[in-house]
Design brief:
Layout: H1 17-29, E1 34-38, H2 44-48, E2 55-59, E3 66-71, H3 81-99, E4 108-113, H4 127-138, E5 144-147, H5 171-179, E6 190-194, H6 199-209, E7 216-220, H7 229-234
Parallel strand pairs: 3-4, 3-5, 6-7
Antiparallel strand pairs: 1-2, 2-4
Length: 235
């Protein structure tokens, strides 16, 4: 469990957010990927209020064409294993698989963010916002960003999840979902969401993922702004 709320008292000795941060850089170093911490764009007063860096950035080379990111904080009072240490584990494992492949890519940036959860969400202290704004300022030619979020849960049990149907789905979206052999109330697939500008990137990702057994549900859904990807959409 990783919590931003110092007042929350866990019944178990879960590691703190600082402890989780401490294990991420070594994960990149063993792969010989250089990493750095970033407070880019924050004034000294705001820096003083933050216990750790906004983002831990690991890059294979420059220029960067793609960013793979995951936040490592959790909502106060929640275990944090699914949201979002599951995604951090996938971030590190993806880096390992790519760097140990026959032709390792040289244009990917791996980023671990803090401060995705409230009270930082959508604010200037949100880690992904700081990073996205620094990319814009530096003129980085990032052609795609993949945000890893809550990937540690799987079940074939009917009625096992409410999202994304909790707020209703348009009939055409439901029809498309069923055409992919997916029941949206069962947590046994991966939703892949993009906005209109990233539709082609979304399609390429979905096509590349199709060789794996877990089904994907690609959706152009710009209103889905509940994680770090929103900061890159905004930039």
């Amino acid at each position: 469990m990783i919590s931003n709320d110092a007042s929350f008292k866990s019944p178990k000795p879960y590691p703190s957010k600082s402890a989780i941060f401490a294990i991420i850089p070594p994960g990149f170093r063993v792969l010989q990927i250089s990493s750095r911490s970033s407070f880019h764009g924050l004034d000294s007063a705001l820096r003083a209020r933050l216990s750790k860096s906004i983002a831990l950035i690991a890059t294979t080379s420059k220029p960067c064409l793609a960013t793979l990111g995951a936040h490592y904080d959790s909502a106060p009072g929640t275990p944090g294993a699914d949201n979002n240490i599951s995604a951090v584990a996938i971030l590190l494992e993806t880096a390992r698989l790519l760097m140990e492949s026959e032709n390792p890519p040289r244009n990917i940036r791996f980023v671990a963010y803090t401060n995705e959860e409230p009270p930082h969400f959508t604010n200037e202290s949100m880690g992904s916002r700081v990073h996205a704004q620094s990319c814009r300022k530096n003129g980085d030619n990032i052609q795609g960003m993949i945000c890893l979020e809550s990937l540690g849960y799987f079940t074939d049990k009917p009625g096992s999840q409410e999202l994304p149907t909790l707020y209703g789905m348009p009939e055409e979206t439901l029809a498309f979902t069923r055409s992919r052999g997916i029941d949206p109330t069962i947590g046994n697939y991966i939703a892949v969401v993009g906005d209109e500008q990233s539709a082609s990137f979304l399609a390429r990702f979905d096509d590349a993922f199709s060789r794996h057994p877990i089904p994907t549900l690609p959706l152009v859904m710009p209103e889905m702004r509940l994680s770090d990807h929103l900061c890159y959409w905004d930039e």
